[in-house]
Design brief:
Blueprint: H1 8-14, H2 19-28, E1 40-41, E2 49-60, H3 77-84, E3 89-94, E4 102-104, H4 106-115, E5 119-122, E6 125-126, H5 129-133, E7 139-141, E8 143-144, E9 153-158, E10 162-164, E11 167-169, E12 174-177, E13 182-185, H6 187-212, H7 225-236
Helix pairs in contact: 1-6, 2-6
Length: 238
């Protein structure tokens, strides 16, 4: 089980596996809380999202500290996170599920896209959402929200453990997003889940084919010995 950088092979396999299948694979390993709640895809363009987590954590804003002038500081955590998220990583923004203000807007999202990030995920709001929506880039959010982050959020930490959509996210965890939503995979499980999830996807394709042909799900889903043998023969013919 690897803990190093995500390989191109694992990344490619994960990009073709649904979050539904991935959550099933994780449940088989005892992990049930891996799918972010009330976090949805905003953009319609772009590929499925796969990448290591790079995190930004917000706490509630305080009026005497969170004023517009803070953005003049190049070390401001939000600005610094945007400029340091590594290529191929997913920016995960912890907004405590508070969508009353935006965790980011179109300029920052576009900057991360241009810098090579694999996507952006927040359980908070995003502003300029119609502009973001048109990007060819994976973006997930909790809701549309025009107010700037400073009205509700204070950026405090970069690349620390966070919660997003009620799921714990540790830096380096593998984040996968499709049209259904976003799942978090511990890094040390990602390689084996990529392989076994691919096998599960093939089995489910076979089962779906049989269901469309009129076969009962009894003995098919879950598969009995006869179905498994038929699947192996079907797979060999592919």
């Amino acid at each position: 089980m690897s803990t190093g950088p995500l390989s191109a092979e694992t990344r490619a396999l994960l990009s073709k596996i649904s979050t539904a299948t991935l959550t099933s694979q994780l449940m088989q390993r005892g992990l049930r809380n891996t799918f972010m709640q009330n976090v949805h895809r905003l953009t319609t363009g772009g590929p499925s999202m796969v990448g290591e987590a790079f995190t930004l954590r917000y706490i509630p804003a305080r009026e005497d500290i969170d004023v517009s002038a803070v953005f003049e500081d190049w070390e401001h955590p939000q600005r610094k996170a945007v400029e340091t998220v590594p290529p191929g990583h997913v920016m995960v923004i912890d907004c405590r599920r508070d969508t009353r203000a935006a965790g980011a807007g179109s300029i920052l999202i576009t900057r991360m896209m241009v810098r090579g990030a694999a996507g952006v995920v927040t359980d908070g709001g995003l502003r300029d959402s119609p502009t973001i929506e048109a990007l060819d880039f994976p973006v997930y959010y909790g809701g549309r929200s025009a107010p700037t982050n400073l009205t509700r959020h204070h950026a405090v930490d970069i690349n620390v453990p966070v919660g997003c959509g009620d799921v714990p996210v540790y830096p380096g965890d593998i984040i996968v997003g499709d049209r259904e939503g976003v799942v978090v995979i511990p890094r040390h499980l990602a390689d084996e889940i990529a392989v076994q999830g691919t096998e599960q996807t093939l089995m489910e394709d076979f089962v779906t084919e049989r269901v469309l042909a009129g076969q009962s799900i009894l003995g098919l889903y879950p598969a009995n010995a006869e179905t498994i043998a038929a699947f192996e023969a079907w797979k060999a013919g592919k």
